[in-house]
Amino acid sequence: MAGKPVHAGHWQLIKLASIENDVVELFVSTGDRENIAGSTMKEVWERFLTPSLPTNVVLSFVKVPVKSVYDRIGAAEARREQDEYFIYSDADDILKYKSKSLLKEAKNTFEEGRIHLRGISRTETTNVSGSELRKLLRENSKKKFIALLPGDVKHNGEAIWKLLRSSLLVEET
After folding, report:
1. At what angle do helices 157-172 and 130-138 cross, to 10 degrees?
2. Considering only the top CATH level, what class is 8-172?
3. CA 60-61-63 angle, 5° bins
4. Could you tell me if 168 and 137 are in contact, meaning their C-beta atoms sit under 8 angstroms apart?
5. Phi and psi of 93, rounded to 5°?
6. Could you tell me if residue 3 is left (phi over 0), alpha (psi between -120 and 50 degrees) or otherwise beta?
7. Which of 52, 57, 144, 156 could disulfide-link to 24, CB 3.0 to 4.6 Å?
8. How far apart are alpha carbons 1 and 81 in whole angstroms?
9. pLDDT tier at 173 (50, 70, 90 boundaries)?
10. Are residues 168 and 139 in contact, defined by beta-carbon separation less than 8 angstroms?
């Protein structure tokens, strides 16, 4: 995920994956996005989000999450692992995972039907987008922003707001 910033919809998707799977490998982008520095979001993850993750979620900070998923499954195939893989994403973003690329990276795993794409509609979680939260940051709409944060970290909403907002202001000036 890009997760700049992380919102309630992201969190509900993470929780759903953690319920449906033994282990969840969560790849989070370290890249910048629309005046939110990857380094600032990494700090938000480390200080506020990671402690609230379900215990079966393993977090990795990566440059390109989609590529990291391909690399992970390809490496597992090279080790001849026989696990099944469920790739979770927003219903639109799941389309980034192409059959041709999955076949190239993990031919046997793909052909054996052990790779499953799980696109989750926003109607199944919270209907919110990162673009919406970035807009609230720019517009200085703190109360609405905090309301769309994951429930598990809303008690840290003020601190998250201040960190992201101060980073945003530095970027804008």
Report:
1. 70
2. alpha beta
3. 130
4. yes
5. -70, -25
6. left
7. 57
8. 25
9. very low
10. no
Per the structure block, which two tokens stand in for 156?
């840290």
Which residues, in sequence order, are bridge partners of residue 118?
Answer: 88
Q: What is the pLDDT of residues 98-129, one digit of tens each?
A: 999 999 999 999 999 999 999 999 999 999 99
Number of alpha carbons in the 13 Å side-chain half-sphere of residue 148: 25
Question: How is residue 147 written in tokens?
Answer: 């309301």
Closest CA to 40 of 162, 156, 164: 164
Question: Is the pLDDT confidence value at 171 over 70?
Answer: no
Please give the pLDDT value at position 170: 57
Instruction: Give residue 101's identity as a one-letter amino acid code.
Output: S
The span from the CA of 144 to the CA of 162, in Å, is 14
Could you tell me which residues come within 8 angstroms of residue 171 by beta carbon, excluding any fewer than 6 positions away? 35, 36, 37
Going from N- to C-terminal start, the domains of the chain cover 8-172
pLDDT at 140 over 70: yes
Amino acid (one-letter) located at 171? E
Both tokens of 36, joined, read 């939110």
